[in-house]
Please model this.
Amino acid sequence: MRALVTGAGGQLGSELHRVLAEAGDDVAAASRDRLDVTSRDQVLGVVLGLRPDVVYHCAAWTDVDGCEADPDRALLVNALASRHVTEACRLAGSHLVAISTDYVFAGTATRPYVEWDQPDPRSAYGRSKLAGEREVAAGCLGAAIVRTSWLCGAAGPNMARTVLRLAADPRRDLAFVDDQVGNPTFTSDLAPLLRRLGVARLPGTFHATNQGPTSWHGFAREVLAAAGHDPGRVRAVATADLVPPRPAPRPAYSVLDGAALRGLGIDPLPDFRDPLARLVKELTHG
Model:
């Protein structure tokens, strides 16, 4: 399979590139320095030049607070760029697998969100990603949109790295919110699933996360436990008590239910504690 990965320098894109290459695919890695996804000419040039079987669109601006401060840039990178990638895939006959987020939902539900629930984003980041979803759905018949959440991987910054860095100082106060609940998702599990969706050219919207909803407080405790530290060091705080306060609103409850994958007979990703233990070992022991 010939594949193109946008955002290949990020934690998901780099892991996906590795998985595709190890599977024997002819994969082109389009990191930000090679492909500016906000440039229609560049996107069309690269995709039509390669004519890949599948394009995995991982490129995005995921700085939630940065998006809140600059919503125009968020729309440019997360929405208009998706229009360009979608157009290029349509012209090249490439299957598109586009990555989205739990932030498209309001986070006010009392049960896990399924793929057919109505999006209602509350942040500039969420609105820009929903706009990108709409560009994909309208412009490329048969494309796949994969919503995920709380990504962690060996490459790039993520909460697991942050917790380990803070925990290295025994005098450091470890305080994490306990009123934001979601599903941690590990790139080592998500990337093979994305390849499976691409190879099968499955269309539609999918929710793909590791199992086991938790809060950021609970997640931090699991990181410490996996690293052999005392999880009791982690103190619970409310989002409203964070100092300084976060500019962008976060979903209070954004657990995603993979009903579409389950309906197709595709097993859910495993409990997050298993890949977390592997990642912590990799980050602490190399």
